[in-house]
Amino acid sequence: xxxxxxxxxxxxxxxxxxxxxxxxxxxxxxxxxxxxxxxxxxxxxxxxxxxxxxxxxxxxxxxxxxxxxxxxxxxxxxxxxxxxxxxxxxxxxxxxxxxxxxxxxxxxxxxxxxxxxxxxxxxxxxxxxxxxxxxxxxxxxxxxxxxxxxxxxxxxxxxxxxxxxxxxxxxxxxxxxxxxxxxxxxxxxxxxxxxxxxxxxxxxxxxxxxxxxxxxxxxxxxxxx
Length: 225
What we know:
globular; single chain; alpha/beta
């Protein structure tokens, strides 16, 4: 028994502990409008271009990032998010960090949804523990139900299955419990301080486009396009 306890103690000492390493800010948004499970619609493609030109890309006209600041990562998950993020990634000359889940013809919908949940959990763990994101800004473009969904959270009691739970947004007032299915035009901006994984602030910002992108839908939160 003494030998067993000694071995367990050595194992605990030798096992590395993943410390907190928290970004200063996470910008969360949804992909653009979609035509089918595999590609964006024309409006979605235009939104992808507008996001890069106006808000997220290098030299964006109304950038969400401070001048001279480069995002530490561009995280994506589905084909729609990868396609929407591409103009932004090209502008910065950096690759997307794709926690990819793609529609496979022989994969049941339930299995795909489970995979989306698992990949969301992996991304959240990286965001709050990977030192390369510590004190930096990360842009996360994701599937809306994995950002926030009261129904999904009810289906999995005792588990954390959305960014709202995994990134501790549910500890703050005013964070929506569900991302509406018809809402494509908002940013969630989450700020942290030090190594505390509980955010210090949350805000929502609407995508507002003018000029060549003025035709894009700009509906209010929860309202149809």
